[in-house]
Amino acid sequence: MSARLGSVHRYPVKSARGERLDEASVEPWGLAGDRRWMVVDSDGLALTAREVHPLLLLHPEITAAGLRVQAPGAEPLDVAVPDPDRQVPVRLWRSELTAAHAEEADAWLGEVLGRPARLVHLDDPTRRPVSAEYAAPDDRVSFADGYPLLVTTTASLAALNDVVLKRSQGTHEPLPMTRFRPNVVVDGVPAWAEDDWRRVRIGGVDFRAVKGCARCVITTLDPGTAEGGKEPIASLARIRRWDGATWFGTNLVPDLPDGRPVTIREGDAVEVLEAVEPGAGPIRPVR
């Protein structure tokens, strides 16, 4: 079986529910519409599902005017793309930048999340550079954690689920890929092959594989209920532990020579252009 793009996913609001797409445009900072919105607290600090689990239950959809967000027990919220002149300071990990404030969402979010919250829109993704440790000086990223795209593979999930099922003696349900919130999922490659990739072509786009993805508590939350558990971190700690972290998936940076978006589609061919010898594990920080 040749390597193919098995599925494409985007997440309109950081930490909220994603959507599967038949195709998506790859922009220099990620898939079009991916994580251009984010929820922050009253000080502009990013709120994520790590600490605010109900964010996972928000169901956002991109509309012609902006965004529609649904949540259990609440009326849907329609939000227009805010005026880019309404900038407020925001902070996401080590990134400090500004984003446009959609004030009409504040009260609704506060009710749904049970805490003060504001919705912001990244009108200009060129404001946020990718970590210089792993990327080129002109690389940019949306409100994703650190890199424009995340790739996972179906074979790696199957290998992980084998361990989960053995550890639980068959009592644990197989984990869905939605736990890991990838943008692109590749079929037809061996388990953990993505660890070794350094350059890969998906459809008509070349990507640099720049860093493995260390996994956090969000993967232990059921995307449908936001309830927590021990998996997959417990099993990853058995088979995928390096440098005090557990790893699943690889971060990608697109190389678009003229900066223009290029569309990728489910079923596109995947070609590994450059790889290292297997066995070293994911690309990790140099200690």
Automatic annotation (TrEMBL):
A UniProt-annotated Pfam family: MOSC
Residue ranges occupied by any MOSC domain in the UniProt entry: 117-273
PANTHER family: MITOCHONDRIAL AMIDOXIME REDUCING COMPONENT 1, MOLYBDOPTERIN COFACTOR SULFURASE MOSC
Name this protein carries in UniProt: MOSC domain-containing protein
Organism: Nocardioides cremeus
